[in-house]
Amino acid sequence: MVALDTGSDLFWLPCQCDGCTPPPSSAASAPASFYIPSLSSTSQSVPCNSDFCGLRKECSTTSSCPYKMVYVSADTSSSGFLVEDVLYLSTEDTHPQFLKAQIMFGCGEVQTGSFLDAAAPNGLFGLGVDMISVPSILAQKGLTSNSFSMCFGRDGIGRISFGDQGSSDQEETPLDINQKQ
């Protein structure tokens, strides 16, 4: 249960942290889960010299690339380091095929603010237009077109489709790209 956010770019998951998500009794309907890079045979740290490393000046020669995302909500942030791993996607054909996509995301070690109050118990999926967002990475690799659609039912459960223009009865919401933010 990750929060979907069109106002930010980074996909991050809580990992290797203490006190970074609400205790199980306060989480709404989904228990918190953590990503553990050492348990994934395909996980790799993103080096400081990567084009995706925005905080190179804060790197040491032996560390992974750090990240820090600060959100509009008062004192709400996530920080940690960047990793690459495989995201498994499925096509929606009559005979679904599974696709392995190497993506980059944040391994969140510290969360603050509303993230401690169940705002994103299992992380945040940034859907913005920067080159580090999952839709942009999928498009750069030629796996999908640079678009996505989301549809939510009355029960709050929904689906996100990458490289999709949506259905003919679906409303459109343009992304407002403000270069100052």
UniProtKB/TrEMBL annotation:
It comes from the Eukaryota. GO terms for molecular function: aspartic-type endopeptidase activity. The lineage of its organism: Eukaryota, Viridiplantae, Streptophyta, Embryophyta, Tracheophyta. Belongs to the peptidase A1 family. GO terms for biological process: proteolysis. Residues 162-181 are annotated as: Disordered. SUPFAM superfamilies: Acid proteases. Pfam families: TAXi_N. Transmembrane segments: none annotated. This is Peptidase A1 domain-containing protein. It comes from Triticum turgidum subsp. durum. Residues 1-181 form the Peptidase A1 domain.
